[in-house]
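$ run holo --ligand "zinc ion" --emit tokens
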Amino acid sequence: MTKNLKTPKNVLAVFAHPDDMDFSSSGTIAKWAKKGATITYLVCTDGGKGSEDPLMTPKKLSLIRQKEQLAAAKILGVKDVIFLTHKDGELAPNMKLKEDISKVIRQKKPDLVITLDPTFLYSIKRGFINHSDHRAAGQATIDAVFPLARDRLNFPHHEKQGLSSHKVKTLLLVAMEDFTHCEDITSMFKVKLKTLRAHASQVAMDGVFEKRVRERSRIIGKKAGFRYGEGFKKIDLS
Ligand SMILES: [Zn+2]
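-- output --
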């Protein structure tokens, strides 16, 4: 297993809903931001479906969740948050989404991209089905990293808009179970909890929830010799 990457200069995190990246990776993001990395969050959906409140509407929820994501980003030191506002629950790894992501890669020119693992469908151990939007965001991002954003003849109109092709050096896929790379988030664990508290429409930050986050981070960290960790699959693109 590899551990603790050298702080990247420029990071793009692509995910499906406001809160996804904060649950999975905010300790790592906070650590890198503190060390001077430029971080961009790209949220693919409007997050308009994640509520059981009978009075809630997708439009209202979407606005609440965007505000929550901006508040969480501020805590982390993430300066730029882009919302693509595709419909929550209906995200598909089609060419529209792939072009949206490719365009941001060409604009921001990240050396490292983090996204969700599209091969993760379910967990028997945790009794859990991975949301189809998570898989769609991950699939589209991988395809955007290679070959779409890298090779200039894809979306040739981007060049006319002043956007040159871009080669991403490292891809990290969020992985809770079968990870091959671990980041030590011990010093940032409190920041991670604070970030999650910003997503008030999604999490009741009670003792039970906090205990679950703590336990999951502890189990991941333990495999790498850290008190708390976040796990990824790391792909170095040569
Ligand atoms: Zn999600």
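-- notes --
The domain at 2-236 is CATH 3.40.50.10320 (Rossmann fold).
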